[in-house]
Amino acid sequence: MNDIVVEVIDGEEVRSRVLELGKEVAAAYADTTPLLIGVLSGSVPFMADLSRAMDVDVEMDFIALSRFGQGGQVRFVLDTSKPLDGRDVLIVEDIIDTGLTLQTMIRTFLAREARSVRTVTLLNKASRRIVDVPVDFRGFDVGDEFLIGYGLDWRGRYRNLSSVWAVLDVDALESRHAEVDRELFAPVGDNLRT
Ligand code: IMP
Ligand code: MG
To answer: Would you name the residues annotated as active-site residues?
Structure first.
């Protein structure tokens, strides 16, 4: 235990909810092969587990985005490699926060004449929303704490944790991260079990 990070969703809870979500999402695509578009890098663990929990065939693609400017403008750093016209697109996100990223993606994919654009997110931070965006499938509603693990990063790190943790003190994480890492990644091997 420490006063810097606290586990909010353990690995077993994540695993069982992702299995349920996979079934729920697959049922919506019984008659079509959806194109899952994952947002790099945060969606990678979720994409891998969710897609394997779906009992329908899927295709996968990835995009990378970066935010710039005061107004929260979003730029594509890496774009899809497949044409989207006529496709049933499912955007796969780790977390939806302000909704600005998702709004840009939905508009862009509809403009490319996708037949449908839906969204699945592991985590939903509804209290932080700036723009109203539809979220079709969600794993967990969370508060407004800064979270790490299962795709979510702090400065590019901690994405490979199997559970989700809240950072209670970001400054302390910076100055005492070696100590925190011992708890997050210990005992060695445990992270791979769930
Ligand atoms: P937004 O919905 O456009 O504000 O942005 C969502 C993106 O912000 C996510 O895909 C994450 O990359 C990042 N993000 C939002 N909240 C958190 C968090 O608590 N921890 C880590 N990344 C976050
Ligand atoms: Mg992200």
So the answer is: 97
Give pLDDT, residue 18: 98
Residue 94's nearest CA partner among 131, 141, 46, 129 is: 46
Which tokens belong to 38? 């994952």
Q: Pairing between strand 164-167 and 146-148?
A: antiparallel
Q: How much distance in Å is there from the Cα of 74 to the middle of ligand 1?
A: 13
192 pLDDT more than 60 = no
Q: Residue 96 C-alpha to ligand 1 middle, in angstroms?
A: 6
Cα–Cα–Cα angle for 41, 45, 46, rounded to 5 degrees: 100
DSSP 70-129: TTTEEEEEE--SS--TT-EEEEEEEEESSSHHHHHHHHHHHHTT-SEEEEEEEEE-GGG-
Q: What is the pLDDT of residues 171-183, one digit of tens each?
A: 999 999 999 999 8
Residue whose Cα lies nearest atom 11 of ligand 1: it is 95
